[in-house]
Amino acid sequence: GGFVFALEKRGYVKAGPWTPEAAAEHPEAGADIVGVNCHFDPMTCVKTVAMMKAGVEKAGLKAHYMTQPLAYHTPDCCCQGFIDLPEFPFALEPRILTRWEMQHYAREAYKAGIRYIGGCCGFEPYHIRAVAEELATERGILPEASQKHGVWGSGLEMHTKPWVRARARRDYWERLKPASGRPLCPSMSTPDSWGVTKGHTELMQQKEATTAEQLRPLFRKADGKH
Ligand SMILES: [Zn+2]
């Protein structure tokens, strides 16, 4: 069996103890695998699991550690993560991590002692390949899909344009700050914060389709917020 906690970004289980204590003191403490899934970006999840690991070890317990973060940058998220972002769920593309950022994530997760390093919403096959490639030495194997390209852009060595050939190296991609190409867009959003949580009537699921009449007040409420 598994147990799922809803974590707020600042590291507290909702209305509960701080993450390190939660990992060790919850009645279900002693789980074989401890980690986090979804809702926040890779580095937020790595930091959270590092805190959980510290809590588990402080309690004298042992566990394996895992992360399955989003493939989206979420520096502007608060309590509920990316669900509160105005771009959720159909306009999140500008936030997607590059393959190089995924390699960074894999390395940091590994350094934090995490050995189940995966991904949740937004991950594409090339992201998982990047994770596997970053840890190829540790795993002693390259993923099969590495046959399709050269690592760290080495395939560009054969590019016709010399300035593109100049990008056939690791440090170029590691240092790059990719532009968004969207001059009228902000770099961060203001997350929705309706204060609606478990038990609230607006959160109740109904069996029938939502009617136009039921949606109207929600649209009005949303428009009043932006
Ligand atoms: Zn997810």
From TrEMBL:
GO terms for molecular function: betaine-homocysteine S-methyltransferase activity; zinc ion binding. Keywords: Metal-binding, Methyltransferase, Transferase, Zinc. Binds 1 zinc ion per subunit. InterPro entries: BHMT (IPR051524), BHMT-like (IPR017226), HCY_dom (IPR003726), HCY_dom_sf (IPR036589). One of its GO terms (cellular component) is cytosol. Residues 1-135 form the Hcy-binding domain. SUPFAM superfamilies: Homocysteine S-methyltransferase. Zn(2+) binds at residues 38, 120-121. Residues 207-226 are annotated as: Disordered. Pathway: Amino-acid biosynthesis; L-methionine biosynthesis via de novo pathway; L-methionine from L-homocysteine (BhmT route): step 1/1. One of its GO terms (biological process) is L-methionine salvage. Its cofactor is Zn(2+). The keyword Transferase applies. Homotetramer. Involved in the regulation of homocysteine metabolism. This is Betaine--homocysteine S-methyltransferase 1-like. The gene is LOC107574103.
